[in-house]
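Below sits the subject:

***
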Amino acid sequence: MGGMDDREQQAGRLQNETEAVWATVGSFVLGAVTGILLLIGDPRPLTGPQSLAIPVAAVGGVVAASAFVVSTVRHHRGETVPMPRWQSVISNLSAIALTVVFAAITAMGALLALQILAIGLQGLQLGAVGGGVLAGVVAAVGGRFAYGAGIGLRTADLAGILFGFLALGTLFAMSTAADPRWWEHNFSTLGGGAGAWAFNGTLVVAGLIIATVGSYVGRDLHRMLGDDALPRIAPIVVLWALTGAALAAIGLLPLERVPVAHNIVALGALALFVLAAVTTARVFPGSPRALVITTIGLIALVGVSVMLCFAIGLFGVTALEVIVIGLGMLWMLTLVRVLAVLAPSQSRPSARMNVLRL
């Protein structure tokens, strides 16, 4: 029986890979044709005004989002049917959020890649066919990634997506920053000037990812602990949603326009992240040692870093932000790896019509 199950699982995985290959081909064709139609006219440079960058990124983002939707519907159709309304709503909202996320990741990756290529290929201009092929390549990469995620996405995958998107968005914002000496102030300085949309948009989408991570953490904890733990799990999901909303608000309230509100929201996001981390760690059954140690280390090191920055002046705010973000990502990586070990992979519909009572 065990050998039969293994062969069935292998056959299923191979079928999924075959589907992903066809999704890549379809994404390329769709992206290339759309790109050619959009770029008919004079040849365009890779970046700058009237360039290939925005159309190519937009085509890739739309195709990637479409691939995720098709894959999710194909592989998870009917999964929410046995769920109560509140559980199906959360599941559907998470899927919608991820659709936006995959579009944003593909678009931001394309913009950063074109920014780098423009430096190495100065003076290059492409016509409709060349630009269309470029759009097809972007769509193929994004479509393959998104289709695979639609087949099965773990909480650990989401944490990696968050880290990757933050890196892509921040690097692109750095490359287009209005003030090349932004680092002498803080990361929020990237949210000002003509290219402010890149950094501020990155924060908004990152906030959406964090809220979705919280939803997936709640899902995994429910699979582990069952309905009896819902009153303890619900505050965790809410705290992560608030943390994501606060991070998005940092991008929606740029430092150069509303400095007081920006700083208040930034501090609130940090406090909410720490509170969400502590609350999540306390709900875990058996208090896994790796998570407990990382949580205590996170709180202690963030406190020490804040003191060294503001009380002693050992380093600047930019360095403090890098330290806090790095510690936060390390904690989140530990969390999702522990979840990957403990949480079942099967969906678990709740028997409760209300999340907080029977």
User: Anything to note?
Assistant: The chain has ten helices and two strands. The first strand starts at residue 44 and ends at 45. The first helix runs from residue 2 to 38. Residues 137 and 320 are 38 Å apart (CA to CA).
